[in-house]
Amino acid sequence: MSVGRFIALEGGEGAGKSTQARLLAEALRERGLEVVLTREPGGTAGGEAIRELLLDPKGPGWDPEAEALLFAAARSDHVARLIRPALDRGAWVICDRFIDSTRAYQGGGGGLPDDAILALHRVGSGGLLPDLTILLEASSDEIAARLSRRDGGESDRIGGREAEFHARVAQAFRRFADAEPARFARIDGSGPAEATHQAILEAVAPLLPGKP
Ligand code: Z5A
What we know:
alpha/beta; binds ligand Z5A; Rossmann fold
């Protein structure tokens, strides 16, 4: 049986994570691999219900502590019911955001200590980490243009926070990638989607079956 692999895509809003997650899933399926394409918050019925609670712009809003607990609860369900079973049967899991988003948004952006977030992750999800985390980065001008084309000024409850919050989030992602270069690949997502896809395929290649 082949070995299951877990790839997460991370980065700010509009960096191209969903687009690239889809392209990567298609490329791996073309190689005959079973791929589970999923997202956070979400991925299971319970995770999607918590997503609504967290992101609905008309919802009540949460303090960083409550937000971190809700993300951890959604992730716990996602790992137990979808991600672990898929990895155990040898599938590849491609996840649009995972634990490093909580570390960057509720930690870097919201001010919660990283060790508290990682402790919640150990309790909720057994501390599961991706084999590879792809950090997609693009300039703020490029991202603003994409989001304005797509959303015309509408944001979810977290995406709509002030620019300083998002700057702290981006800085935190860079810090995590620099601290764990073996787990992260930092990829420039500002160019055409196809160029970014090729760079991601190169980063993923060492994990493919048959590679040492
Ligand atoms: N959040 C959190 O706080 N803590 C956590 O633990 C987790 C999440 C897991 C989830 O929102 C929110 O929850 C998020 C973080 C927070 N809020 N913020 N910020 P989401 O899942 O709804 O949204 P998102 O993750 O921020 O994704 P997004 O806005 O959809 O961006 P994306 O997935 O990175 O980009 P995309 O959908 O692939 O592309 C965006 C647009 O650009 C789209 O119209 C594309 O067609 C276009 N695009 C993509 N690539 C290109 C290129 N290369 N050139 C030109 N145009 C492109």
